[in-house]
């Protein structure tokens, strides 16, 4: 069955990994050692992504767990730095998004996302408007790997799961997507994606990732960053 839609995770697929400068600043702002920071950072992240916490209540929970105290101004800086840590873009993948859209392949984003990062993205990333659909966990109050979030996205795109390709960096999200019938590939880098598409016979009818001509920042600015 031909692929009619490509559904992208945002973090570490359309974006790069955590920006190291922002990450170092974030850890320094908490005063925690890296192992302790990682433990506290991820403990309540699911509830932040699910919309049951906002940035302020999320960092207040971290402070309570770690025996810390943050002023309102410190929390504002923690939120801002956390957002900036996740907003470095993978330009090669955005070039492939452009090529898919120009080839009339439907595109969507399906992301576990807290409201503060989402607000920043909506303000700064005009290219979001070019996707047929966005599924944001904080608005739906459902997070991957809940099967319902994948089926919701397919319904909004008006495609059956076998007609869609799903890309995510986390194996548990890939396994859940495959279980509902999506063609799911764990993303590491664009060269690996190209190999996996070819190996699984999913490349037919799709632009080849990593081979898009004229994929320069100016090209991105012209085609996707203008709202």
Quickly list its features.
227 residues; 5-stranded parallel β-sheet; single chain; alpha/beta; disordered C terminus; 2 domains; Rossmann fold
Structural overview:
This protein is α/β, with parallel strands linked by helices and 227 residues long. Strand 4 (164-168), helix 11 and strand 5 (183-186) form a beta-alpha-beta unit. Strands 3-2-1-4-5 form a five-stranded parallel beta sheet, sandwiched between helices. Residues 222-227 have low confidence and may be disordered. It has two domains: 5-16 and 89-223, HAD superfamily/HAD-like (Rossmann fold), CATH 3.40.50; 20-85, no CATH class. The protein has 13 helices and five strands. The protein has helices spanning 10-14, 20-30, 34-43, 45-49, 55-66, 72-85, 91-102, 115-124, 137-140, 147-157, 171-179, 190-199, 217-223; strands at residues 5-8, 106-111, 133-136, 164-168, 183-186.
Helix and strand topology:
Blueprint: E1 5-8, H1 10-14, H2 20-30, H3 34-43, H4 45-49, H5 55-66, H6 72-85, H7 91-102, E2 106-111, H8 115-124, E3 133-136, H9 137-140, H10 147-157, E4 164-168, H11 171-179, E5 183-186, H12 190-199, H13 217-223
Parallel strand pairs: 1-2, 1-4, 2-3, 4-5
């Amino acid at each position: 069955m031909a692929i009619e839609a490509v559904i992208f995770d945002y973090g570490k697929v359309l974006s790069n990994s955590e920006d190291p400068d922002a990450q170092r600043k974030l850890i320094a702002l908490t005063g925690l050692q890296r192992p302790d920071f990682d433990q506290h950072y991820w403990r309540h992240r699911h509830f932040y992504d699910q919309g049951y916490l906002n940035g302020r209540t999320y960092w207040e929970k971290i402070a309570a767990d770690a025996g810390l105290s943050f002023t309102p101004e410190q929390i504002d800086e923690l939120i801002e730095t956390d957002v900036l840590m996740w907003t470095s873009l993978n330009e090669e993948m955005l070039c492939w998004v452009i090529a898919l859209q120009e080839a009339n392949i439907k595109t969507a984003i399906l992301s576990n996302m807290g409201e503060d990062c989402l607000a920043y993205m909506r303000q700064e990333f005009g290219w979001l408007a070019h996707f047929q659909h966005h599924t944001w966990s904080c608005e739906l109050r459902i997070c991957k790997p809940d099967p319902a979030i994948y089926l919701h996205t397919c319904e909004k795109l008006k495609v059956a799961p076998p007609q869609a390709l799903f890309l995510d960096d986390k194996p548990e999200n890939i396994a859940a997507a495959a279980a509902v019938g999506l063609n799911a590939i764990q993303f590491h880098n664009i060269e690996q994606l190209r190999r996996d598409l070819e190996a699984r016979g999913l490349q037919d009818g799709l632009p080849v990732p990593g081979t898009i001509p004229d994929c320069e920042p100016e090209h991105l600015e012209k085609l996707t960053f203008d709202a």
